[in-house]
Structures are given as C-alpha cells and as structure tokens.
Amino acid sequence: MKNTIEEFVNVCTFSINNLVTGIENTLLTDTMKFNEYIQIRQDLKRKINDDKAYTKINKNLIRFAFLIELVKDDVSSTKFEVRWSPRLQSDPRYSDYEICRDIYFELMNNILNFDEEYIDLLKLVTKNFLISYDIPIDYKEIIMRTDSTFHNKNNITWIDKELFEDTILTRTILLDSNYNEEQAVFEKAIKEKIKVKTYLTDRALTGIYKTNREKRWETHPGSVQFAFRRDTYQIEKKLSLQICKFANVPESLINKLVESNLLEDYETFKCPIIGREIDFRDFKDSILISTHGKSRYQVGHMNPLKSVRDGVFGHTPSNISWVTEDGNRIQGSLELKEVYDLFFEIFENKPWELVAE
Q: How far out from the chain centre does Cα 69 lie?
C-alpha cells in the first residue's frame, strides 16, 4: 500500500478519489489486511448508515493519516506529500508509513465506538465543509524531538463533542437561509474572512519557518503560525458569533442562536482597539460591496504572532478578534498594551486644548 500511496501523491494533479480507490484496491489484495479491512469497512458503513457521508469521512481519515500539505520551497503555494517524505527528514512532523497505517485503522475503530450524536455531527460536517478535508481530529500534544514523531496513534485525539457541536451548529445556522435572513452576508464573511484567518497560515517569506496558506496544525510546530485544530474550531466559533453581536443584527437570528444555546449573553460588540460599536448594516455593505485591497472590518491578532511570551499570545481564541479599519491602522504591529500605553502617553503629553482643536 505504501507504493500505491506514493504513486498517487507524486502526480502533477492530485486526486483524493484516485488515492482512495488505489488504497482500497491494495488493501483488498493484501492477504494480511484483507479480512480486517473488509470487516471494519462493513462495520463502519453500517455505523454511519449514509454512503455519501461514509465516503467523505473515509477520504478525510486517509488524508489525515497518510498525508500532509507542505508549503513549496518557493512559498508560492502548498503541495501534498506523504508523511514519510524526504522533505520531512529530521522534522517532528515526519511519520513512517507503518505508523500512518496504524493511525488509519485506529481512527476507523474510534468511530465504531462513537455514540450516535457524534456520528450525526460527523455526517453534518460533511454537508458543511468550510475547509477541505474537515474532520475533528487533533493532536494531544506536540513533541519537538527529532528522534520521535507526534503523528502517531497514541497522540491522536478527537475534538470534544461539545466544542465540535457548537462550532458546526453555529456554522450550519449562519449559512442556512431558513434560519438566517442575512445568510449571504455571513457566507461571504465566513468563507472569505474567517476561514482564511482561522484555519490557514499567513504568508511569511522570511525567517526559519516560511508559510503560505498551510493548515495551521500542519505547519511546523516551531512556527508562530501553528495552532491546534481545537483552537481553530474555537476561533471560528468566536469570530462567527462576534458578528452576531454587532449592533442591528436581525433579532430573529439572535433568538435562534439563544434558543440553540449558542449565544448566552448578548452585549453589543465593540472594536477591542478603539472601543467603537460595529453596526451590522455598515458591516454588510463592506462585505457585499468590497473594494480590492481595502476593508473597513478585519480579523486581527490583539498581540502580533511574532510576540511570543507568557499571556494572551499566539493563534488562540483569546488573541483574535474582529477589528475596525481605524483600530487596525492604529495598532499596526504593536501589542495591545503598547497601543494603550501610547494612548495614555499622548493624553499626558498633549494639552487638552490642543487635542480639542
């Protein structure tokens, strides 16, 4: 099977469908794995009870277990590689083929032990993909050692059901016109703003770890762009619900979110930099009638990713928010505390009469 995977990955145009077919054909002719695979596939199909959902889930399991999407050497885009690629030698993301195969079978067995609610959520996410190969699998911890890999079956975990459910239900409600009369606004905001900022790395052409739109959990864990998948789920949920707290959001949407226990306290959202309320009507205009290179509302880190120290830093839910254009321009590359210190310095150094003018 190792040769089959390498063959289908090392092509000009990668096709997950061709890879899955190749893997299944290989397993079905492997006398050592034949009986095990036939049985687990039958059990899994029966458990999921939806052929389309099973097919998508299986693709995602294979994608996670065997492959990684690495940024190219010229940092222009990403390319699929096997986990045992020569490019990953002496890299903590490296994993032997045998370990990847064990992960694949372990994940299938995990699903067989899930309750119906988690299975239903897995089926729901196959109908509401935000990123390609979206599946709630994460790492327990990151081990930065070149003599071991964190990509192994003992370090794999499924995202907590409550977080998974909240994130997927929020996404489902906001993107469904039956629940949300402003579905078009949310769809564009989520798919063009939140998706990119939440799940994909920024473009970094310099430094040790160059990145450009890799999955956050697949970039090198030494990079400031790295994030666990559980953190990205929380970030998606936070940024989506922040929009729902803008002034003048349709009341029917708020009621639906409250009824679904997704929105508990409703306090009008304010830009964390300048403290100004954001009006949903203005946000709608900026999203639907956008100007290339300009945006009145952006998603930003309160403390830049390059500022790594104790406290609220990194690509984490507590360090990211919607901000106004003015707030983003004032902040620049400063940490939030540096912005506030600068404000106080201006107020102390400038006489009030000059400020008033």
A: 14
Q: In the chain, count H helices and then E strands.
A: 15, 6
Task: Give the Cβ contact number of residue 326 at 10 Å.
Answer: 13
CA angle 51, 54, 59 (to 5 degrees): 130
Average pLDDT over residues 53-74: 96
Residue 282 CB-density burial (10 A; 0-12 exposed, 13-18 middle, 19+ buried) = middle
Given pLDDT bands bounded at 50, 70 and 90, which one contains residue 148? confident
SS3 state at 138: strand
3-state secondary structure (DSSP) of residue 241: helix
Q: Which of 203, 217, 272 has its CA nearest to residue 239?
A: 272
Tell me if the pTM is above 0.85.
yes
**Average pLDDT taken over every residue of the chain:** 91
Report CA-CA distances (Å) from 308 to 2, 154, 278, 330, 346. 39, 29, 29, 21, 27
**What is the C-alpha to C-alpha distance for residues 324 and 109, in angstroms, rounded to an integer?**
46
Which residues neighbour 11 within 8 Å (Cβ) at sequence distance 6 or greater?
A: none
Dist. CA 340–CA 186, nearest whole Å: 31
Q: In sequence order, which ranges of the chain are alpha helices (DSSP H)? A: 2-9, 16-29, 34-48, 51-66, 97-112, 116-126, 161-174, 183-189, 195-199, 229-243, 251-259, 280-288, 325-331, 336-349, 352-356
22 with 7: CB under 8 angstroms? yes
Provide Rg for the chain, Cα atoms: 23
| Nearest CA among 234, 230, 233, 214 for reference residue 140 | 230
Q: Which residue has the tokens 């889930």?
A: 57
CB 5 within 8 A of CB 25: no
